[in-house]
Amino acid sequence: MVRRRGLPLERGLFELYGDDPERADALIFGRRTGASRRGFLRGTGLATMSALVGASIPFADQMPAGLIPAAFAGSDEGFVIPGKEGLRVLNDRPLNAETPPHLLDDPITPAKRHFIRNNGLPPESFDPEGWTLTIHGEVERELKFTIDDLKKNFEVVTYALQLECGGNGRAFFDPPAKGNQWTYGAVGCARWTGVRLKDVLEAAGLKPTAVYTGHYGADRHLSGDPNKIPISRGVPIEKALNPYNLIAFEMNGEPIHPMNGAPLRLVIPGWPGSCSHKWLNRIWVRDRVHDGPKMTGTSYRVPRYPVAPGEKVPKEDFVIIHSMPVKSIITSPKTGIEHPLNKPLEVRGHAWAGDNFVTRMDISIDFGRTWIQAELDPPENPYAWQHWRATIRFPIHGYYEIWARATDDEGRMQPFAIAWNPKGYLNNSMHRIAVRVVA
Ligand SMILES: Nc1nc2c(c(=O)[nH]1)N[C@H]1C(S)=C(S)[C@@H](COP(=O)(O)O)O[C@H]1N2
Ligand SMILES: [Mo]
């Protein structure tokens, strides 16, 4: 999907250049580092570069080797993901891209603005014809469905469902945590259409030994080794039977975007996004906690007790993340704006709370000394994010920060500080934006 071809690399350009720019040049240009770095693009290097930027490069003979990464650095231009717009690409292999907060302003996230988090290489075909889903393991009968079978045999429903990557907000960890440096935008709420996971599991008949699901899809391991899979996670059966989990074939009334899991995916809202398997073709019902790749060790796990920033935690003290914590985002205005003193400012955004509801939203313009209660809408359905808005008047010109804080139905609030953990998960600290008020 991403317009790049012929790059014989297991890792992406971003990571490659971040680690060792000279070696990256050598790999891409097929030449040695040092004195020869003054070379210019030609031959296979030029062909690769053209494929990467999705166009021919008229002045290629003037393009020094070291210029390559600049074409992509943290921008939404240059790196073309068809059908997406305005996303910030964090990595190209695997492809990971987030949405800047002000582009998440729509009540329902359009497909072009929905983030992408891939652990491997997407499948080569997204064709719904001939796609099948197999349910096996601890079930009375193994079942295999085409997408048409699913539509014919089960009730088709549409829900707005929020998905957030477990590592959203990792960029603010100090000391830093390895992995994608998501800031705010590994979250979205699209309208998904599909059949209930519950109905399909019940049709297969869950045996009393069924305790967990294991999800499998058609994406490939980064190494290209067909015997390896990039990710296979699952959820406890009690969560799997939640009626808002979908086996989805449409996103906002259209076929799912290829990078968001076309033609068939799970949407298991409220839990880390990694539970919502894309390019889904098999569900293995397990008699034990699933142990696929990224399910074990410290993946998608946090220490079961609070730890100090930087603290080493023994592996056996990590627990699997279940519900995501209460969180909110300011989608308007965009951070950094100037605003006239004599005019009220409408601030708005969305809030969500894993398996819970958001019951209150507060805004501060004085670094948290006082709070203004925002107007908060109920969700369109459980697991949809909730919209909120507040009108603010500023007492005097100057520099302000607007802070947003959501509270869930169990009284839990977003903290100011990050509850640090080794792998950089679950950062639900408050979103803050800057506004300069001018007289
Ligand atoms: N098959 C497959 N499913 C997957 C992934 C993946 O790499 N492969 N990534 C997971 C992770 S970590 C997240 S956060 C969500 C992201 O969904 P999106 O890319 O549609 O936003 O997909 C999940 N499902
Ligand atoms: Mo994720």
Would you give an account of this structure?
Strands 6, 7, 9, 10 and 11 form a five-stranded antiparallel beta sheet that branches. Strands 16-23-22-18-19 form a five-stranded mixed beta sheet, with no helix packed on it. 10% of the residues lie in helices and 28% in strands. Mean pLDDT is 90; it is low at 1-9 and 31-38. By secondary structure, it is mainly β. The longest helix is centred in the N-terminal third of the chain and has 11 residues, at 43-53. The protein contains six helices and 23 strands. It folds into three domains: 1-82, no CATH class; 132-320, Alpha-Beta Complex (Sulfite Oxidase, Chain A, domain 2); 327-438, Immunoglobulin-like (Sandwich), CATH 2.60.40. The termini are far apart.
Concise overview:
The chain has about 450 residues and is mostly beta strands. It has helices at about 15-20, 20-30, 45-55, 145-155, 195-205, 235-240; strands at about 90, 95-100, 115, 130-135, 145, 155-165, 185-195, 210-215, 245-250, 255, 265, 280-285, 300-305, 320, 325-330, 335-340, 345-350, 360-365, 370-375, 375, 385-390, 400-410, 430-439.
